[in-house]
Write a structure and sequence with these properties.
The protein is mostly helical. It has helices at residues 17-20, 29-54, 60-81, 86-112, 133-147. It contains 5 helices and no strands.
Amino acid sequence: MDGRVSRPGDAQRGSGRAVAGARSTGAGFGRVLVTVYGVLAFAALGRSSYELATKFTEAPVAYSLSALAALVYVVATVALALGAAPVWRRVAWAAVGVEAVGVLAVGSASLVSRDVFGESTVWSLYGQGYGYVPLVLPFVGLWWLWRTRGPAAHGPRGSDPADGSEETTA
């Protein structure tokens, strides 16, 4: 017994903990991660909204990529905050994976040719304009999703005490 109290209906309310056994991605260190994602989502959404509304014709690809990045950050923020439920964990994996691929692809393309998009995007030069947070954040997010996975993800042998995972019993 690990001291956690299970309330009737937890699984039906969407917590997912009783079903998947995964720890919440929005608790502990996850709160910091969700906060950083939220700040970046807010910044990227503000920037892309302004660019789309006032300068879209100048660099449509760059400003569309910034809008895509903002959307990915919003989805990742919500999914990580609600990540105890299996469906939100899958959404978080997808959003953070798209983010990682996006920042690497756009960052590499903009490094090869600085004017490839006409203007800089959130992910240009691996997020240089945002202190390289866009480069580091998806890998921290992927690590956190991996770290908080449930006991079923450990395979038939169960959890590995060395990795900090815990076996849960009902």
